[in-house]
Design goal:
Layout: H1 6-23, H2 49-64, H3 72-94, H4 107-125, H5 130-148, H6 163-180, H7 183-203, H8 220-228, H9 248-265, H10 271-292, H11 305-328, H12 336-342, H13 345-359, E1 363-366, E2 369-375, H14 376-385, H15 392-416
Antiparallel strand pairs: 1-2
Helix pairs in contact: 1-2, 1-11, 1-12, 1-13, 1-15, 2-6, 2-9, 3-4, 3-5, 3-6, 3-13, 4-13, 6-9, 7-9, 9-11, 10-11, 12-15
């Protein structure tokens, strides 16, 4: 079996850590601009997290299957893993919608929700035989989709797409493309997808709107979401989804660029040569992304083609630097902390989605208003952390750092005991 490429795990760990940082501020009202997403066009540090992870998903495909075998067994594994990832994300949308016998929000209802969370999480992350994994993934997928369209009021507005769902979709298509095509075809496909998406978004008139545009809520991707995902979109946007259907197309392009790099990494050529090739490609991608942005702005919300090239270039540039330090020069002693984050990404994705939701369901008396209650998450921030700082952005960041430190302890325990949660 081929040894793990540590630099890829380190980059994944850095990406998941940054995701945890930007997704868990003490207060969303006080976030440093660089750690918040761009309102529309533009790119901040927060906007690099998702495309970096997608890029790594693409890299990991050939690393996991260095010998390509386009057979039923591998295809079934790909389908099962894709469904497991998709369902983990989809279940997050259901957490607040789980009710039981008219119970009001509180500890009892929270315990019921956590029970269902444990059952679903175990079914999707647990280590079963391949057939059992497949059956459980299909069963949970059918149940969750069925509930969303059942007409029941609790599930009438369940969000169907999201971060993990998009990762599952991209993994599915990138893996199948890897198994069924050669490198030349993969390169042509990645270019075709990015150019095709640009053409759709800038040349095709938007039904009911008129001329093509790239504005909030009136572009072609938004229109398609409003038609096919009605009542099942991100609640803060309502008429479109930032992880919507059409905008998933260029994300596959992100994954394919990672796929091409992953195949470069397993080539039997000197590591220094691989490193130089990656560095060179990264600069070309960044330059092309910036040039294309003059006509097709860098934008995460609609995942423009320029955003794909720019972020893939930055991810590859960072990987080439890490690869040079670790794999070429052999300096590995500093990697352990990031490896603890890099080898267990899915448990962080899933539990980090559940934990904040759970904490908002536990209420205590508000010290400033004894007739009111406050959830324990807000209590911890408002009364333990916020008073320590005059700068509320710094206090909000401190909450994120503390959250990361707590996760680091958990992940360190898993790492030392060789506990790896796989989907």
């Amino acid at each position: 079996m081929k040894d793990r490429i540590i630099s890829v795990d380190v980059l994944r760990g850095l990406t998941v850590l940054l995701m945890t940082l930007v997704n868990n501020p003490g207060s969303w009202s006080y976030v440093y601009p660089i750690l918040d997403h761009a309102k529309w066009n533009g790119c901040t540090l927060a906007d690099l997290v998702f495309p970096f992870f997608i890029f790594i998903v693409g890299i990991a495909v050939p690393l996991a299957m260095p010998v390509k075998k386009d057979n039923a067994e591998n295809i079934t594994k790909v389908i099962t893993r894709s469904l497991r990832i998709f369902c983990l994300g989809l279940f997050l949308s259901y957490f607040y919608s789980i009710h039981f016998m008219g119970l009001q929000p509180g500890i009892t209802l929270l315990c019921i929700r956590l029970f269902f969370t444990f059952c679903v999480g175990y079914a999707l992350i647990g280590d079963f035989n391949p057939k059992t994994k497949n059956i459980l993934a299909i069963l949970i997928f059918v149940i969750l989709i069925g509930l969303a369209y059942s007409g029941h009021e609790n599930f009438a507005k369940i969000r169907l797409l999201g971060v993990l769902q998009r990762i599952g979709i991209v993994y599915f298509f990138v893996s199948l493309i890897y198994l069924k095509t050669n490198i030349k075809t993969q390169a042509i496909l990645s270019i075709s997808i990015l150019v095709g998406y640009w053409a759709l978004m800038t040349l095709v008139p938007v039904p009911g709107i008129g001329h093509p545009n790239l504005e909030v809520g009136t572009n072609l991707a938004s229109w398609l979401d409003s038609v096919l995902l009605e009542n099942h979109m991100y609640v803060e946007t309502k008429t479109w989804d930032p992880e919507g259907l059409l905008s998933t197309l260029p994300v596959i392009g992100n994954g394919l660029i990672g796929l091409l790099i992953g195949q470069l990494l397993i080539q039997p050529i000197p590591k220094i040569k691989i490193n130089k090739i990656m560095a060179g490609i990264s600069l070309v991608l960044i330059l092309l992304g910036l040039l294309w942005s003059l006509a097709f702005p860098i934008n995460k919300s609609i995942w423009t083609s320029s955003y794909v090239l720019f972020t893939a270039g930055l991810a590859l540039l960072l990987l080439s630097l890490i690869y040079y330090i670790i794999d070429v020069r052999g300096y590995k002693i500093w990697t352990t902390f990031l490896l603890t984050w890099g080898v267990n990404p899915m448990i962080v994705f899933f539990v980090s989605g559940i934990l904040p939701r759970a904490l908002t369901m536990i209420n205590v008396q508000d010290p400033e208003n004894i007739s009111e209650q406050i959830n324990v998450r807000d209590y911890a921030y408002n009364f333990w952390i916020s008073p320590l700082f005059e700068n509320q952005m710094l206090s909000s960041l401190t909450y994120s750092v503390i959250y990361i430190l707590l996760w680091s302890c958990v992940l360190w325990y898993f790492y030392k005991n060789k506990i790896i949660f796989k989907v």
